[in-house]
Structures are given as structure tokens and as C-alpha cells.
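Hi! If you just cloned this repository, the fastest way to understand the data is to look at a raw example. We've pasted two of them here, unedited. The first protein comes first, obviously.
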Amino acid sequence: VQTCALPILVIRNLNLVEKGITVTDYKEIISVSSEANTEILDITAKTQDPILSAQIANETVKVFSNQVYNIMNIRNVTILDKAKIPVKPSGPNMKRNLLLGFAVGVFLSFILVCIKYLKDTKVRTEEEVKKILGYSIIGNIPDIKQGGKKAYYGR
């Protein structure tokens, strides 16, 4: 048995075809990693259904341990721990994501307001004119409204 036959055996043993899982899907669901400086393999399965994930991981370990002699000539394979059904989802954390999104939104809004305030060069009051130009104000021309709309002269 080759390692490429492992997904086929697991899919056949668990009747995953009925659940719409193909060999390509299986390869995306399963991840295998080795612990540093050991001969321990960590097999993980991630799907939307936690029960199915545990079944796939356990069946993969079972099939692999039965076929490992043919693959790697190793006779004594021990399963250290079976996959357990998770109590809570492994990700994404909705509470954390919402709080983080809110905090980033408030921060970016604050930065945007500060930039807009710092880039504003309009003169709005008589005091600002005196401060900037150093001249005193002789007169003031009020806005004249025509038909409910402001009329600006000189534009």
C-alpha cells in the first residue's frame, strides 16, 4: 500500500463519498506534522462538523498504523491519543474579531478626524485673521440669503 492509497482507504472505511468528500477534499481536511526531535506524528482534521473531524482523524490514524509496515517497515506503532470531539470551534473567534474590528474602526476614525483637522487651513473667525495677518479688522461683510440659499460674492 502506498501513502497515496491512505486517503482512499479512509474515505471508503468512513463512507465519506456519501458525505460529498473526495480525495482532494480529504487532502485539504487532513494535516500531518511531526513533533520536533521525535518520531511522533500529529494528525489533525478540520471540517465544519466536529464529529466528522474526529472520525476522519481517528480513521486516518487507524489505517496508517495498519499500513505503516508496508510504507516504512516499522512494526511497533502506538497510538498515543485518539481524537476527541472539540467542545468549542477552533476558529474563528467571533467575539475577539468583533472587538478587534470595533477597536480598529474607532482608532482609524480618530486618526482620520485628526488628519482632517490638521489639514484644515480655513480662517473662520476675526481672531484667527488678527493672529495670522497681524492686522486689525475694520469691517465685516455678513452673508446675504436669497431664496433660502447663501449667496457668495466674488465666486
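Ok, and the second one:
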Amino acid sequence: VASSFHVGLYAAVPSTATLAAMLWIGRYSSRILEWRRHFALLTLAGSFGLALTALASRSLALTLLGLSIGLAGAYSALPLFWVVPPLVLSRRAAAGSVAFINSVGHLGGFAAPNILGMATSATGKQASGMWIMAVLLVVASVLMWKCIPKGLMAK
């Protein structure tokens, strides 16, 4: 990389791709009222992107492509996830589930850096964290696909 300016430009690529994907996918999934399948496919795409990033650490172009796909998939799936609780739960249960999900999410924000650090220390490879995140995205995809009923519609 030639300069810090170029580093900034390269760092903006995944975020720009994620912004475009979030806007387009959010509109599209809301227009056709389909969130379950989109979430599952997006988390799988995110998993693929992170795996590509872990495998292609020597290539700037492939790393940027992997990070762009990974972040776009993972972050575009988040708003789709939050649509589901009010569709499958009563109003009161949905409020409690949102509070519970937020609590677990905050614990994840504490635990994830520690787990990723331990994985890197144990293996000696930075890619270990990418692989852990890729596996967790596959788990999220499978859980949404298997546990949430097909054909959810807005109430």
C-alpha cells in the first residue's frame, strides 16, 4: 500500500459495499415481505465472505472482496432479524424477547473479543477469529431457517 490515504480508501470499500447492500436488501425484503429466507441467505453469504477473507490473507483484492461480502451479509441480516420477534410472538412476549436479545447481545460484545483473542493465542493465526465468526453465522442461518415458521407476514 502506497500511503495512508490509500489505506483509508481500501478500508472504506467493505463499509461502502455494506451500506449499499443494507439499503437495497432492506427495501427489497420489506417490499416482498420475506425476512426468514433473506436472513438465512445473508448470514451464509457473510460466512462465505469471512471464510474467503481467512483464506486469502495474502491478496489485497480477495481480502477486500471477502470482507465486503462478509460484512454486507452479516450487517444486512441484522435488521431482518429484528423484524421476526413481533411476527412470531405476542406483543408482550415480543417486548420481553427484545430485552433478552439485547442483554445477550451485550454479553456477546464482551465475550467475543476475548474468545477471538484466545483463539488467536491458541493457534497463532489471526484467521482463527474469522473462522469462528464464519461458523457462528452458519449457526445463525440454520437456526433461523429451522426454528422460524415459513411464510411470516406482517401483522
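That's it. A detail worth noticing about the second one: Residues 91-123 form the longest helix (33 residues).
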